[in-house]
Amino acid sequence: MEDVRQIIAEAKSHMDKAMEHLDHELAKLRTGKASTNILQDLMVDYYGSPTPIAQVANIQVSDARTVVVQPWERNMLGPIERVIINSNIGITPANDGEIIRLSIPPLTEERRKDLVKKAKHAGEESKVGVRNSRHKGLDHIKKAVKDGLPEDLGKRTENDLQELVNKYVKHIDDVVAAKEKEIMTV
């Protein structure tokens, strides 16, 4: 019985990680509003080691369409600016010698549709992660039944696992639909 709970708990843990991954991927999608998340994965060379921009500069949203990056050391302005340009996020930084401003342009209809495709793709990747955790759980349940777990308890556990999968898949669909609505709102 303890093994069965452990199998479900492990599967749930993997499904939670799939949801975290989805949230992380969706946070990076630009929706036409300024957000510090667009810089969260960018690394800058800080004295020979790659360092997240957030660890060498203050990043804030100054208004609905502007992100401001203020390095703690003035000599980091150039490297941060180069990383933003090379990152392919589609925004050209404006460096005034003190801070870097990123003006977020309004999204075109074509770009919005492209972002919706990316959001749906991230949702599908998360669903695959959820299904993989179900597959591993089912393998563990079948092994436990072979090792002496009552068959009816095994079937009940498989049903519980499937209900958990259905719940996560529905949640993924809801999150992706909300992001799609946010992206398509002009």
Description:
Strands 3-4-6-5 form a four-stranded antiparallel beta sheet, covered by helices on one side. The protein has a two-stranded antiparallel sheet with strand order 1-2. It is of the alpha+beta class and 186 residues long. The protein contains four helices and six strands; from the N terminus they run H-E-E-E-E-H-E-E-H-H. The longest helix is centred in the last third of the chain and has 38 residues, at 109-146. Helix content is 59%, strand content 15%. Helix 1 runs parallel beside helix 4 (151-184) and helix 3 runs antiparallel to helix 4 (151-184).
Q: Determine the number of helices (DSSP H or I, runs of at least 4 residues).
A: 4
Please tell me what the overall shape is.
Answer: elongated
Which fold name fills CATH's third level, the topology of the largest domain? Topoisomerase I, Chain A, domain 4
CA radius of gyration is 22 Å
What is the annotated CATH architecture of the largest domain? Orthogonal Bundle
Helix fraction bin: 55-70%
Task: Bin the strand percentage.
Answer: 15-25%
CATH-wise, what's the superfamily of the largest domain?
Answer: Ribosome-recycling factor
Poorly predicted ranges (pLDDT <50, ≥5 residues)? none
User: Major beta sheet, specifics?
Assistant: 4 strands, antiparallel
CATH class of the largest domain: Mainly Alpha
Distance between the termini: 53 Å
Sheet with the most strands: spatial strand order: 3-4-6-5
Number of domains: 2
Strand segment tally? 6
Main structural class: alpha+beta
What are the secondary-structure elements, in order, as H or E? HEEEEHEEHH
Mean pLDDT: 89
